[in-house]
Design a protein that fits this description.
2 strands, cell wall biogenesis/degradation, 387 residues, peptidoglycan glycosyltransferase activity, cell cycle, glycosyltransferase, two-stranded antiparallel sheet, transferase
């Protein structure tokens, strides 16, 4: 009884793939992704110009690059969304293995671009962040393990998934990239919960994560500096958090006006990690609420469609992808308003970054593929036919 979801969709013999895809894909989520990308380009027109001028580049250099990367991401998303759950699983597993190999090689061939964390591979004309591409593949791999464990006589897939999670989290923490490590661990916990893990075990893993954070605080100056800055009752107005906080306060309900914001001239990462501060200052609370609504719509609709999914792999992997997508957006915006310590995490489809937007396209393509309606119908209908 694999690949079953709610609703019925008629499939005719020889039905062309594009019409079948259009009838079965979640059009609301697809529209929300396009909306986020459009907002990203709009904000990039304002946020990236100061950086381009500082680097003696054409004014819209970064916007043009984002448009190219975003176009590639949307094409990749559309193609992947046409795959079956089995094809998504194969693509994810192969992608996870490749991204994992690149992360292992980072200490030797990687670079930190002066940011204190070796996360990137520099290819000269473009840089690549393997951890961005690891996330969707990791979700597919662990979902495969967990789904296999549900079969009669199946392997100890949950144990395998735990080993994979621990290995990936440790490698990311060593870069150090605690933000991505936390997101990977969260994704695994959500999938493990959906797969039927006991709450005691989940609390135990969460406790181990807290202990790991305490150890990292004492062992990593990079991590300790960010935590101390977050816990400090005073905000240094000359820091990125200080600039972002002031910009959000200045924006008010309707913003100071298009192109009238000042934070983009002060924040070096205004076009990436703190893009929401630019949105809040120039367009106000209205724009921020619109962005939040788009993210919530994608996550909620995906989870509702997955609730009636009968294929264990599709249900587990889809839940992991949807929750990781939403939590990444939550972390990015939470950092900007100082609800969370600085993580260096982008806002999916909105922030500038080739690796980020293309990896988001891959993840969203996989999610759209797993949430497509299937022709098998409700479980009750299948049981009635079998009588």
């Amino acid at each position: 009884m694999t690949e079953m979801v709610f609703g019925t969709t008629p499939v005719r013999a020889g039905d062309p793939i594009l019409p079948r895809w259009w009838r079965t894909v979640d059009k609301w989520s697809l529209a929300c992704v396009l909306g986020l990308f459009t907002i990203g380009i709009l904000l990039g027109l304002a946020a990236s110009v100061p950086l381009a001028e500082k680097n003696n580049l054409p004014r819209f250099y970064y916007v043009q690059r984002q448009a190219v990367f975003g176009g590639m991401a949307l094409v990749v998303m559309a193609v992947i969304s046409m795959l079956s759950p089995k094809q998504v699983r194969r693509l994810g597993v192969m992608g996870c293995i490749l991204a994992f190999a690149l992360i292992v090689a980072l200490p030797v061939v990687g670079t930190d671009f002066g940011k204190g964390a070796t996360r990137w591979l520099s290819l000269g004309f473009v840089s690549l962040q393997p951890s961005e591409f690891l996330k969707p593949g990791f979700v597919a791999l662990c979902a495969w393990f967990m789904a296999a464990a549900m079969e009669v006589g199946g392997p100890p897939g949950k144990l395998y998934s735990f080993i994979a999670c621990a290995t990936v989290v440790i490698l990311l923490a060593l870069q150090p990239d605690f933000g991505q490590a936390s997101l990977v661990l969260f994704s695994w916990l959500v999938m493990y919960f959906v797969a039927g893990a006991p709450m005691v075990l989940l609390f135990g893993v969460a406790g181990m994560a807290v202990m790991g954070g305490v150890f990292a605080y004492g062992a990593s100056e990079h991590f300790a500096r960010r935590i101390n800055g977050f816990l400090s009752p005073d905000i240094d107005p000359r820091t990125q958090i200080g600039f972002a906080t002031n910009a959000i306060q200045e924006g008010g309900f309707f913003g100071v006006g298009v192109g009238e914001g000042s934070v983009k001239w002060s924040l070096p990462d205004a076009h990436t990690d703190f893009i929401i501060a630019v949105a809040a200052e120039e367009y106000g609370l209205i724009m921020v609420l619109a962005i939040i609504t788009l993210y919530c719509t994608i996550v909620v609709r995906s989870l509702l469609r997955l609730m009636k999914e009968r294929d264990p792999f599709a249900r587990i992997a889809g839940t992991g992808l949807a929750c990781a997508f939403g939590v990444q957006a939550l972390i990015n915006m939470g950092v900007a308003v100082r609800l969370l310590p600085a993580k260096g995490m982008t806002l999916p489809f909105v922030s500038y970054g080739g690796s980020s937007v293309i990896a988001s396209g891959i993840a969203m393509g996989m999610l759209l593929a797993l949430t497509r309606t299937r022709p098998q119908g409700e479980l009750a209908e299948i049981l009635r036919r079998g009588r």
